[in-house]
Design a protein that fits this description.
Largest interface: A-B, 27 and 27 residues
Largest sheet of chain A: 7 strands, antiparallel
Distance between the termini of chain A: 29 Å
Helix content of chain A: 25-40%
Number of strands of chain A: 7
Strand order of the largest sheet of chain A: 1-7-6-5-4-3-2
CATH topology of chain A: Alpha-D-Glucose-1,6-Bisphosphate, Chain A, domain 4
Oligomer: homodimer
């Protein structure tokens, strides 16, 4: 995976949680619901069809009840190692007309898990169309948001095991 | 595969050429060079990395030497059965900034091969973002162009066997 610093955002973390647990947290709706947006926001709906072209849909909900849908499809699935999806394509790889993400932000995301000691080296990479998209995502709080989410995932890990 | 008649264009053909031969014609650069654009246009360059996220690049050349590049990536590969690629994503699934196809036409294409008698039922499906994109592609001569290309593929088949 070649990072392009002008187009990509990267969150890297090391955790004692095993890759298998991080994978479950990322791929099972019942877990995603509990960590995939920073509290006090919540996930109202999750739909996961874990195959290339399969749906990845979430609805994020603000504390006052406003809902923000995100719709895309999975591109690559390597169990316990790599998960790729995009919102430029809808389920079945159909081109999205307008990107249906809360922020209207076209991106492809890659989650990479590698064994590290007893735990995991975790990388979440967002690739954008242009430098402006990257910048907007960064200013929306990519690092803080994805970081908080990952903290929530780690806190949830004992219940997933 | 669910066709949406408002967004998709479909070319269906039946041929005596076996699916294995059609597959080779579609996936090997030395064959693609000889049929992938209607004569007297020609293919100046072809690059194929046949895996999800792998490059699919062609350069079409008009009789007077003008070149039209097309760049995208493969999404799904099922040998002898199904080939999917898009120009909304670049190699490595990176979002394309502007679609780099000769016609600036964002689409996902699906080629489906099924055994039929001693030959093949061939379907080439192009999915577009909106009805306008479908219409533009149709007016550019989708059916005639893809049809002529397929005739060229069939004519080439005895040399591929």
């Amino acid at each position: 995976m070649k990072i392009n610093p002008e187009l990509d955002l990267v969150l890297e973390r090391f955790t004692d949680v095993k890759p298998e647990i991080v994978w479950k947290a990322w791929t099972r709706p019942e877990h995603l619901k509990r960590w995939f947006v920073p509290a006090p926001w919540s996930i109202a709906e999750v739909e996961v069809d874990l195959r290339p072209g399969g749906i990845f849909r979430t609805v994020m909900q603000s504390p006052d009840g406003q809902q923000f849908p995100n719709l895309g499809c999975f591109l690559e699935i390597v169990e316990n190692k790599k998960l790729v999806w995009t919102d430029l394509l809808l389920p079945g790889f159909r081109p999205a007309q307008a990107v249906q993400s809360g922020a209207d932000l076209p991106f492809t995301a890659i989650v990479l898990l590698e064994p590290h000691g007893k735990g995991t080296r975790y990388q979440a990479i967002c690739m954008h169309q242009d430098a402006a998209g990257r910048k907007r995502h960064e200013e929306m709080g990519f690092h803080e948001g994805w970081g908080k989410c990952f903290d929530q995932l780690v806190a949830l890990a004992p219940e997933i095991g």
